[in-house]
Amino acid sequence: MPKEYMTIRDVVGPLLLVEKVTDVKYGELVELQFPDGSISRGNVLEITKDTALIQSFEGTRGINTTQTRVRFVGKGMEVGVSKDIVGRVFDGLGHTIDGGPEIIPEKRLSIYGEPMNPYSRDYPEDFIQTGISAIDGLNPLVKGQKLPIFSGSGLPHPKLAAQIARQSQVLGKDEEFAVVFCAMGITFEEANYFISEFKRTAAIEKAVIFINLADDPAVERIAAPRVALTAAEYLAFDLDMHVLVILTDMTYYCEALREVSAARKEVPGRRGYPGYLYTDLATIYERAGKIKNKKGSITQIPILSMPEDDKTHPIPDLTGYITEGQIILSRDLHRKGIHPPIDVLPSLSRLKEKGIGPGKTREDHSGVSNQLFAAYARGKEAKELAVILGEAALSDVDKKFAKFSEEFEQRFIQQGEFENRSIEQTLDLGWELLTHLPRAELKRVREEHIEKYMSKFMKEESKEEKELEEVKS
Amino acid sequence: MEQGIIGKVSGPLVVAEGLTNAKMYDLVRVGKDRLMGEVIEIRGESFSVQVYEETIGLGPGDPVYTTGEALSVELGPGLLESIYDGVQRPLNVLRDKVGDFIVRGVEAPGLNREKKWEFKSVAKVGDEVASGDILGTVQETTIIEHKVMVPPGIEGKITKINAGEFTVDDTVAVLEKDGQKKEITMLQRWPVRRGRPYKDKLPPHTPLSTGQRVIDTFFPVAKGGTACVPGPFGSGKTVIQHQIAKWADAEIIIFIGCGERGNEMTDVLMEFPELKDPYSGEPLMKRTVLIANTSNMPVAAREASVYTGITIGEYFRDMGYSVALQADSTSRWAEALREISGRLEEMPGEEGYPAYLGSRAAAFYERAGRTSCLSKDDREGSLTVVGAVSPPGGDLSEPVTQNTLRVVKVFWGLEDQLAYQRHFPAINWLQSYSLYMEEVEDYWTKEVDPEFKKLRTDAMAILQREAELKEIVRLVGVEALSTNERILMETARSVREDFLQQNAFHEVDTFTSLKKQFLMLKVIMHFHEVALEAIEKGTNIKDILEAPIRERISRIKFLEEKEIGKLKDLLKDISSQFKASRTGGE
Ligand SMILES: Nc1ncnc2c1ncn2[C@@H]1O[C@H](COP(=O)(O)OP(=O)(O)OP(=O)(O)O)[C@@H](O)[C@H]1O
Ligand SMILES: [Mg+2]
Hints:
Chain A is α/β, with parallel strands linked by helices. Chain A has 13 helices and 22 strands. Chain A folds into 3 domains: 3-75, Beta Barrel (Elongation Factor Tu (Ef-tu), domain 3); 79-353, Rossmann fold (3-Layer(aba) Sandwich), CATH 3.40.50.12240; 365-472, no CATH class. Helices cover 36% and strands 22% of the residues of chain A. In chain A, helix 3 links the parallel strand 16 (177-186) and strand 17. Chain B has 586 residues and is an alpha+beta fold. At the A-B interface, strand 5, strand 11, helix 6, helix 7 and helix 10 of A face strand 1, helix 1, helix 4, helix 6 and helix 9 of B. The structure holds adenosine-5'-triphosphate (ATP) and magnesium ion (MG). Residues 237-238, 260, 328 of chain B line the site of magnesium ion.
């Protein structure tokens, strides 16, 4: 029998303090019944002998202290799951909102999950081909990885994320991904883009969608990714599915957390975000992974917009400290019209070493990718110098690097929204571009790989050069 | 034991009431599940307890039990090859008990109680023994002989000593003092927040060889020394720590994953049993203890994890071993401290960290050192501590970095720009430093080559000069440089690319012996000399820069240790370079 109280003392922002409570537990789920009959859910943030501090997920609008009923449910917040959740749309707390029938849960699971035992984890090492060269070639995604996209307002991260969701496949295995999509605080339009994308490509039949829009209660965003990940864990580890989780936009999630922290008058860390933001985010991101002797997996692609495109802002910063790399979008490349505008140098996939190579992608993958990085970095540096001092100030070799970096952006990074390149195509394209550099500069690739993979492009190249020289003379 | 009740729950902090005899840092059991917790503040009747497990579901009125003991670790055979959480619960045992996700309230002792170890006595009946004296040994793994020592604070005459197969709970010896008998087992307990005693601290004098060129040659750490690696995310802190754990010439490795990624621990767990220690030829896991309190595991246990790890490290040091400990990342430890401090409503210092952050950090690193151990024999042990620091936004002025730099002797500063260029390890060679240079140089002169010290100094000078010249190039272009300066720029590039850069994932490049490091640097510097001479004698700079031998230099890092002779050949070939072209040209 749930305990019910009408003893609210204070309401501050999303928080309420309830007095004269007994036998309430930390983290307990609470139902609030407002004077107008509407119901909000919340949970206990702090409990003393006779007061409970509660955060209300659906806001506090309409609450008063005299008529609002507070019901303690006797357990933590849970979500009901069954295989029927696939193909359905829910709100941030897990209620269906697509007009379909209610889910009859097979189990009810705590949305907080439990930490995966590091001893049980299986190291992620299966390459996922996204068909995008800037990712597959240089910063490859691996099954069970958490790889966020650092974006900025107005940058095309929805297109990129949708392309990844559409094209992702595990090479050589007949494995498809189910998508768990969780929207937090984004606009109707953006959410709608994803949903119609999923519908158009029939991905919706293998998707579970959780939606909290910009005008939905902010505090609900604290629960939403946890609800989504609980569903993902169920699909992955109970139903053996490979799940790709897209969480967007983590920035709004963090803002909701800040709002609660401010209302609690906690000592803030950097830029007003709570000191425990790292730990809090880790309890979300660390829910990606694989488990030994289990077939399923959770791969996470959180998306966040960097306030003022600043990578050192606490949200991208702490995310980068937890995730296994990051894909960074660049406003410069976007302005240049390059799609996807992936800034490959500061982007990183930390799990790439074990996910690529012979038997997984191709033996030359690691070398080519290191070489492309190094060459592009040097070319960009040369270009910057040329901007200040003029092209003439560059050595001949540096001129070649500068030209290389231009081509690299135009041909390697640039690709169509619906262009799906195989990993062979990506690597071959890399080699083709490398032919423009002096061979002695190719220090990061193995001798035998140059012979095997690059020579076929060299012939045409030297032909071209000859022709050019003929034209000149 | 006494029982009280919970008065308040706020995250990992629980306030207990109705206890009278609990002491600071005592272990208590909280709630019906008997979750582990530690008393960290006493105010009148209220005892603040940090709880090492998730507190959801606890509430006022739930019981709290005292144990009368401080938070301690179990020490004895069976530590090696283990993976523990922050409070020494073996994670493999937890998995067997509760499955792939860690649920609350599971108990598991640090050391296996069933396993029998072959105990060989060293001391004999009638011997007078005291703290630290070795009673016997156990071959714990193929490479490590565990020394069973008289626990600190105990002494007496041996009246009985056994030999044979025993569990850690069985009595292996009996001591008698003033008519009192004391039974000794192979298991000792030690409170984690107190350093284990030793006879004397000694100044470090031997370098810890890590096989990492930029570290060993440019910024070495001594055995028994302290080092820190601060750097923004993705700059390579963990890879450096893993590399040290793999290739350092320490006898014992303690790796603490403190608030970091689960997969990084899995990586070590899967790789170390496969990789062979270059010194013993045995799997690396045989000398390793892992502590894993990942970022999603309870935050209070994260705070404890570094102490659990260092206490185990001291225990092996006391046996006379050289121990190297890596803590990744100490920033997460400091954040745990901050979170608990916030819940205690303490007055916050800089960036919300408690005012005692500095003293706690110093006390931790102070537990490193080279020591002469308690015991009659004159054994020496060492404990080297390397801590990663994760400064927000890569900003080194933040409190954790600053407080760390105040105590450690070696600073490997990682830089994001280097990481973007895939210059790994991304250690900034101009800002980093080691205060052990003098100690280490003697060793180099004796054990590697008398010329090593000079080579290193010259190479560093070239790198410094390069930075100045780069500035000039940025302002006025490459044309402003003299021919000699252009040679220097090329040599600097060669030092950076062919020496400093080291790919941790390349089967050969991942480890370089000191001897090979010396020869590699010699090759590069020798080419520099020869090139300058050639310029002097009129050789065209283009011929020097395009000399085919440079490609050979660029591949020296991929020469295996057994091909070290080829470096000597290369030195000869460099000496004879440009001679032909000069005579030909004139
Ligand atoms: N010596 C190296 N050789 C090759 N690659 C390296 C090396 N050091 C670092 N890297 C690359 O950099 C990536 C990031 O390194 P690492 O995980 O050690 O960063 P970190 O500083 O620990 O980051 P965080 O603070 O987020 O944990 C690695 O996954 C690897 O790709
Ligand atoms: Mg790391």
